[in-house]
Records
---
Amino acid sequence: MLITKAPRGTNDILPEDIPKWLYVEDVIRKLCFEFGYKEIRTPVFEHTELFERGVGDTTDVVQKEMYTFLDKGGRSITLRPEGTASAARAFLEHGLFNQPLPVKLYYNISCYRYEKPQAGRLREFHQFGVEAYGSQSPQMDAEIILLCMTLFKRLGISDLTLKINSIGCKDCRHKYNELLKEYLRDNLDRLCETCNIRFEKNPLRILDCKNKSCNEITEGAPKLLDHICPSCKEHFESTKKYLDELKIAYAIDPWIVRGLDYYTKTVFEVKTGKSGAQSTVCGGGRYDGLIEELGGPQMGGIGFAVGIERLLDLMKDKQIEFPKSRPLDIFIANAGKDADFEAARLVQNLRENGFWAEKDLSEKSLKAQMKYADKLNARFSLVLGDDEIKTGQAVLKNMKTGEKINVSLKVLDMLYKVLKEE
Ligand code: HAM
């Protein structure tokens, strides 16, 4: 009897699905190489204060969704809910800001959020993310968005909508918060409890509250995009111009504020046609204050993250074909002890030369071995018995066509030698 199941909101990735993950990861790796983004790997857990400071202590992620615990030394530890804060921490801790700027990084990570599980919303999920530090230029915004959209294109996913917005700088937001508060003041009793706290601490967060009644109130609120300062406006206009030049289609959505506090200026999301939690496959934006907030120099930053589970679901829905995984090259069946040793030697030789080769490992009869080879979809089989060992000849069978040819075991050995020397 199974003693327990996997925790709610987590998935096992089974061997049959791994080729899909590897394929997506390969496409990502190649793309990042071409764009000059280097991989970074950071710990699964960090000190809690990193996310409180980085992501923001009035966000849903920090207030409600973090897996936080005291370790045996009494330190507060959190499983990473996202990758941006961790990458920024590592960037600072290892002085990567001394490298030629912009420093461009990427990661493929697992993330943990205590959310209500549903289709496309998990408690353990995976993200491909990129971060670029040290450029405040709209060219950087455009490159990040281009990288993101190129990924979808390479994976064969079309008809996605790129939505962009600008949420301005600290000053723009400070002024806008006052406007928003003025608008909301008369409706405080209709806002949820959390939003009442946000009203005092961080009114912008009310705009991305998941509560329906709060959404109804914010529907008619003034739009931040209409109130950004001339410099942020110019940055946004210039970003759009680059996107136009690069022929990247986008729609402006003034209601994108993103759920994390570090964002400034450009923010964007990639939307699928799906409803609910699965509708956003990618989110990102600029964060020009984060590095400073974490104790580093003032410098620009921008990035995005794609949810891999949502991406794979989307590819499944769109019936996008994955490259077929390589089948078993050869199964070497045997009867008798001597033949078994010879089969083991041949199999090892083949493996040394890059073939996928298998033999019996559980004392099966010859008939059962052949059945097994069939089930594994072996392309070729070779049967070894006492006669074959004596004569040094065996029959190689093409399992698909049934064609058979006599081969010399010595020839096989010679072939390995030649292949090895190459
Ligand atoms: P985020 O919007 O919170 O942004 O997450 C990015 C993506 O991760 C989402 O668009 C979605 O595809 C996936 N995702 C988020 N939560 C879940 C979940 N519970 N289950 C399944 N998938 C999920 C960030 O995390 C930022 N760090 C992105 C970023 C990087 N901004 C700048 N640099």
---
Amino acid sequence: MRIRVHHDAAAMAEAAADDIAGWLAVDADQTIGLAGGTTPRLTYELLARRPIQWERVQAWMTDERHVSDDHPDSNAGMARRALFDWVPATLHGVPFEDDPAQSASAYEATLRRVLGRGPVARPGLIVLGVGVDGHTASLFPGSEALTEASRDFVANWVKASAVWRLTATLPLLARARRTLFLVTGEAKAPVVAEILEGGGRNYPAAVVSHLARDPVWLLDRAAASSLTHTNSF
Ligand code: 6PG
């Protein structure tokens, strides 16, 4: 696992854009799985100005809210406004169905086609955020999707907010060749310290990081402020 601490959120976003651009420069046919929320938005905006062979890039969402992609809460909508409306890459959004399980099944078939080499979807680089409760993608603490051992993408009822979410599962996330966690802000400092130094193995983000082949944590100093030993960049 690599941990890199940057001066502020803008510097972290630049470093994340460099890492993703570097990944795509090696092989633009490599897929990228993207997080939603607010943290990655600046990184996606910066990527729009990077010289990448975008026409070869296939992107997907590691999770989505149960809304259509023109809804203001849509993660794919955020990614399109920040990046995919500006470059000739393909972003596979999660199809909206009234029944969230149908949306998840349809997307699972898409992922097998887009990420597959044979019957198994194999993600390239994935970008993930972390919530203050330690969730990542839409794998929330105590939620049923955390126990999914065979499916790649499922609907997940989030009790705390009484909403359906659609999310990649641990088996799919664990197959990624590189896993990039982007975390900024003081509010995340406690959970970052518990995950990276405090043995907080039960947080979903900790489980994903532990299973990951090549986990890289990109933090700003605020999110790293409760860590006892890091070197800032
Ligand atoms: C979502 C995200 C979610 C996000 C974390 C962090 O659907 O909101 O995929 O997992 O990455 O909640 O969100 P922020 O970046 O907004 O802090």
---
Amino acid sequence: MTAAPIVTRVGAATDTGLRRRLNEDAYLAEAPLFLVADGMGGHDAGERASAAVVAEFARLVGAPSLTVDEVRVSLRSARARVDAIASDGRGAGTTLTGVIVAEVAGVGYWLTVNVGDSRTYRFANGFLEQISVDHSVVQELIDAGELTVGDARGDSRRNEITRAIGAGSDGRPDYWMVPAAPGDRILVCSDGLSGEVGAERLRDILVEEADPQDAATRLVHEALLHGGRDNVTAIVVDALAVSGDHDDVFDTAPAGARRGEPDGDTRPRARSRGDS
Ligand code: MG
């Protein structure tokens, strides 16, 4: 049995929230996959879409690590499953984001994937950085200089996403390869967390709660305290040990997310985009 390139410890929590009837979020938090899916659609279609994507990726649980190609194949199968739900006559779709343990030349990496507006963050050396870039109308307005990050959280278009798995989207994912280091803490969440709780508060909780399950539970609770207007899900993954020599690593993370280059901006400025 090959050793895992990143030894992880994980906690996860989800809640329907205070306003919704169904919890359409789904998550997978078993090595090597740490993923959140936020479903959308009438009746129970959103719930079924997010569950279908998680079920597809759950087939890969237990592998020490995965490759981008393996993730792409699963994403294609996941999309077919969501499209089948949609063909019942009700539109169904889901976001997907998170990290998958990967390995390149003996070095452990966080293979980060994103479709939609759920988020993946890295907390390292006291700094919280958003790795994923939202596929959303407000993110496009921010990129165009027409909206500030501060105003975006209160914008009426904040729930409009520009890419999804299903829902008539081609679902093209973004991928990033982020070199892992011991002590890294990854936060994967639905917009029910990031839409209710600001980045500074997220960071404070990640500092205060050493145990990843305590951190995930507290983050979800915090979203409820802020109104709980949406389903809310959080996964917290700690890297306990990482294989490899980190002196010469391949890094596609946003510049600000690189180790040793902390600044106060949690918004990524660079991305590499893959397709499935
Ligand atoms: Mg949501």
---
Amino acid sequence: MKRQYIIANWKSNKTEVETRSWFAKISNNVNKEIIICPAFTVLSWAKKLIDQYSLPFKLGAQNISPFDEGSYTGEINGRQIQEFAQYVIIGHSERRRYFHEDEEILEKKVKMALSAGLIPIFCVEDSKASIPGGVTIVAYEPTLAIGTGNPDTPQNANATAKDIKDKSPGVRYVLYGGSVTAKNVNEFTRLPNLDGVLVGGASLNPSEFFEIIINA
Ligand code: PGA
């Protein structure tokens, strides 16, 4: 059976209390790599809850400083993230669009992640995007599919994943992201070039996310 990644991108959602109730409701018993990416403010709390409920989940951050430690007010660097998480999402289209992150900065972020021992989950909008060296996990997320309820077609996502792997041989896993739900997840994960999903909105509800894990 191929290895699959199921990633929850909580974006700018959930307080401590809400994080606790999410973890209290979810449990997991399947053999898939489940990665929860909460906001920085609840990352350490999520780590405690994973231990408390003995969940086989890993954690990821949603961003990383392009700099090492030092005088960079407001930034969280790789060594700080690494105390809590094993993964980090880099290059999400919301970061590119609202925070003007370009290829140069994304490459720096990937370097910082790798030097801190974190695994970058590098997001691209299509197969033309450049992928920094050292990236092994890519999430293909077409902008028009994010948060719209209009996912890409599984066939197109699969073809794009194949293009990405052909173009960047270092990339071992390509995930699909954009309006994934418990209903449609298997249409994507059953295709040969897709190795999992990155889920935004539908990951906020523990029962739906649990169903996504089961159905994937
Ligand atoms: P969505 O978001 O599942 O809410 O469409 C996916 C993402 O932006 O990672």
